[in-house]
Known about the structure:
The structure holds two protein chains of two kinds. By secondary structure, chain A is mainly α.
Amino acid sequence: MNRIVSAAKATYYFFAGDAIILSAVLLAFVLGFVLVHVAHAPNPLVAVVFIALIVGGLVLTLSRELLAH
Amino acid sequence: MSTQLWAVVIAAFLASAVEFVEAFTIVLVVGVTINWRSALAGGAAAVAALAVIVAVFGTALVAFVPIEALRLVVGLLLVLFGLKWLKKAILRYAGLKAIHDEEAIYEEQLAEMRKRGEHPTAQLDPFGVVTSFKSVLLEGLEVAFIVITFGLQANDSLHTSTARGAQPNGILLATLGAAAACVLVVGVGALVRAPLARIPENTLKFIVGVMLTTFGTFWGGEGIGLTWWNNDVFLLVLVAFNLAVAGALILWLRPHARRIAKESAQELEQPLQTEVLG
């Protein structure tokens, strides 16, 4: 069990290492996919939402770093 | 060679050059910031994987390999890697440096080694190998798609316009175009490698972060089904946008970092003053 947990932790730190960035990027990809394939939203709107969510993740995680200081 | 044949070679050259530039940019930044061993190992592994895929599928590759799904996965991972690097570089530029002590010490050691002109590390770095591997694999597959589709189209048009038996091979012509693009891009890359190595550590990390985030957003967007304005040209817009955002974030964080430094200096001075005066 310990091995599984440490492997999961190592994978998480290797690929993301930041919960806010991970959540924002996953949300951007899932929402973008839904907007394109389910809602059939216009291309520019999907592009703006997709980019804004990715950049938003960076802004949020930096804000958290600032608060932690 | 006829105009029609030159058109196949030039079209394959131009389309492949764009893909090679994208792949080589990532390999170059991994080589300069982490080490060349990891960058080349990842690139070589991807080329080997590509060779196996092409050997197994041949021209049927276009029908069997889910390029959209591959773009989605590679894009997602590149955005995650890119934002992680960009965050660290922004914090360092702003003056809010240390995130985790061990990591900061390790990175300071690397920076010191680079200053002394020593190679940071000769060991294979998993991050470097994976980043280089997936970029070369994805772009290499796109080049294979270009060669196959351009080559097959050329075969069809040459079949209708030339006599049977004297037909040149469209795939071979497209391969020649792609190979010329590869030689050109790698040659230019080899020339810019030395000046890049003299750029300070944090500047490189900042550039890597911006580039990985840009390519990740672009490929990820294509993976979810987005069609970017003007296709590959939009990469330049994305780079400019990400640079502007990162620059704005540094400017926003800097005054806060100065205030925090001032406050902690005052906190350190206060007990000293009470000791001396008391």
